[in-house]
Design goal:
single chain, mainly beta, Jelly Rolls, eight-stranded antiparallel sheet, globular
Length: 116
């Protein structure tokens, strides 16, 4: 299998912004993606994701690895304490991690979602 490079992403390469799936209050955060790629044979997908300020429920059920390129906020797992993150941080979510994102400054992250 050949490695791939997801080159630096320019604004025009992102999808159009859409409201997040499960908003919590106002403002309703807008998300967009770029460079999505299904990793053949690895049961994973990767890409770049960006989200404006707002709060929403995490909609991904699978395990996820994310590297925060820029921005800041918190993720509060159900029944847990808020976890603050900012540019340069890495977040690892086990499968079935549920909770609430609160984005304070527009976040751009690279991610890998493990689909198996």
């Amino acid at each position: 299998m050949q490695p791939i490079v997801l080159n630096a992403v320019e604004d025009h390469q992102f999808s159009d912004p859409v409201p997040v799936g499960q908003p919590v209050g106002e403002p309703v955060a807008q998300a967009r993606t770029a460079g999505e790629y299904s990793l053949q044979g690895a049961a994973a997908e990767t890409g770049i994701w960006e989200c404006t300020p707002g709060s929403f429920r995490r909609g991904v059920k699978e395990a996820e690895y994310s590297y925060i390129i820029c921005g800041e906020g918190t993720f509060t797992p159900d029944g847990g304490e808020p976890l603050a993150f900012r540019s340069g941080d890495t977040l690892c979510f086990p499968p079935d991690s549920q909770g609430t994102w609160t984005i304070r400054e527009t976040v751009r992250k690279s991610y890998v979602i493990f689909t198996r």
